[in-house]
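User: Let's play a game. I give you a shape written as tokens, and you guess the letters that built it. Ready? Here's round one.
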């Protein structure tokens, strides 16, 4: 059985391997976004303040989660490398060490977030009408950090060995469970009191707890390619240092993205509510495009890592090249379709506001042709991550967002005749520069040197 799994990703058709990994990952990401949709649906029945309280908490929650979830990438990289080398002992040991480190970090973040909920909500400007609800939601959500991170590391480890379907089944179950628990804890029923906004957080914490318990139980049983053990969960400084060195750049990358999203919103809000609405529509479209781009990037990380572990650097390069082509042509094609239907698509979200429809459609038309370049950037990041060169991914992402997109949006919108359209143009320009930078660095081949170090 071990040989079959190894050969599936280090031998045979690369295209089949990529799709078999990427499609379940994309589906899992789509399922995970439904948590927010379900919460918004039920909270919307409580009123605008309830939705506002959660919306205000989300950027801070996302930032905290980014700091921890970046470290789970190290699990994917290390496990894929050892799996490709057919070193089951190190697969199990590095997995145990990863679970141990993530558990400690998630516990610290949970405690810190819980006690800083009030000050954080004050900093981001929670008004008196939503302050109590936003603090309550944030505090309850903090309880779930440990569960959430435990499932994230389980998911990352499974992806590392190529077992991508098992997490999908668990997510599917918990999404349906959350659909039932949300109204139960928000409104109450029978002996269960209604907790209002905090009820949505409690529903999520319960489903996160169930998924975490299932995931860790699977890892402890060892029937699905990885067997962790409590005896291997101790401070092995060599392993923990390696996990931290691989994962910390990813944490920085994700947290700077979260901050960058906030900064872009600040620029947009200065142009009025209609532009904010138009930006919101474009941002929703972009978030949908990012899902397949990220899915392909994560699949590339796993495949590149396994082939490096199997001492097949040339095949790892072939994986990256093919993944690049799929991302560029596939997402460019999708971008062209969105370009053609930009106006009716915008009208679907806001049907009775011609100005917002016009501005939102323009944003989509300017941004859509560069979706293939966004896909290339994610694949390049996935390649560098698979080679253990997570600092390269971090630097490219920081350059794209903080050196190019944000300053360009500011300069073009405030200092040229483009006005708010300058914000729209910052997206394709930053996508182009990041894709070119990533691809040139890929062709320079330094990641191969890092791959040999990672392998050895």
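Assistant: Ready! My guess for every position:
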């Amino acid at each position: 059985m071990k040989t079959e799994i190894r050969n599936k990703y280090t031998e045979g058709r690369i295209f089949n391997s990529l799709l078999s990994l990427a499609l379940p990952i994309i589906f899992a990401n789509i399922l995970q976004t439904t948590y927010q949709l379900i919460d918004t649906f039920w909270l919307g029945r409580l009123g605008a303040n309830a939705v506002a309280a959660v919306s205000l908490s989300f950027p801070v929650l996302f930032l905290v989660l980014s700091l921890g979830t970046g470290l789970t990438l190290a699990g994917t990289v290390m496990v894929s490398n050892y799996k490709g080398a057919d070193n089951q002992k190190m697969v199990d040991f590095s997995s145990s060490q990863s679970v141990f480190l993530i558990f400690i970090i998630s516990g610290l973040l949970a405690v810190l977030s819980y006690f800083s909920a009030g000050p954080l909500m004050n900093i981001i400007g929670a008004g008196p009408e939503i302050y109590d609800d936003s603090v309550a939601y944030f505090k309850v959500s903090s309880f779930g950090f440990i569960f959430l991170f435990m499932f994230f590391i389980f998911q990352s480890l499974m992806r590392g060995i190529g077992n991508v379907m098992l997490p999908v089944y668990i997510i599917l179950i918990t999404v349906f469970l959350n659909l039932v628990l949300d109204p139960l804890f928000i409104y109450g029923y029978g002996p269960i009191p209604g907790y209002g906004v905090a009820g949505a957080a409690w529903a999520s914490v319960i489903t996160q707890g169930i998924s975490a318990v299932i995931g860790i139980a699977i890892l402890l049983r060892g029937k699905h390619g990885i067997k962790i053990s409590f005896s291997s969960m101790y401070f092995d400084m060599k392993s923990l240092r390696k996990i931290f060195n691989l994962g910390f750049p990813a944490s920085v990358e994700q947290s700077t993205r979260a901050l960058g999203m906030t900064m872009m919103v600040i620029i947009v809000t200065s142009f009025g509510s209609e532009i904010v609405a138009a930006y919101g529509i474009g941002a929703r479209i972009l978030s949908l495009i990012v899902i397949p781009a990220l899915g392909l990037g994560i699949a590339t990380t796993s495949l590149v890592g396994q082939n490096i572990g199997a001492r097949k650097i040339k095949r790892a390069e072939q994986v990256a090249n093919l993944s690049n082509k799929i991302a560029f042509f596939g997402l460019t094609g999708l971008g062209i379709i969105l370009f053609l239907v930009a106006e009716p698509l915008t009208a679907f979200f806001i049907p009775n506001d011609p100005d917002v429809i016009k501005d939102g459609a323009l944003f989509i038309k300017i941004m859509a042709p560069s979706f293939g370049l966004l896909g290339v950037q994610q694949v390049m990041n996935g390649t560098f991550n698979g080679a253990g060169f997570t600092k390269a991914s971090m630097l490219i992402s920081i350059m794209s967002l903080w050196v190019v997109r944000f300053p360009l949006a500011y300069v073009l919108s405030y200092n040229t005749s483009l006005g708010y359209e300058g914000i729209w143009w910052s997206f394709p320009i930053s996508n182009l520069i990041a894709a070119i930078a990533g691809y040139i660095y890929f062709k320079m081949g330094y990641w191969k040197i890092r791959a040999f170090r990672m392998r050895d």
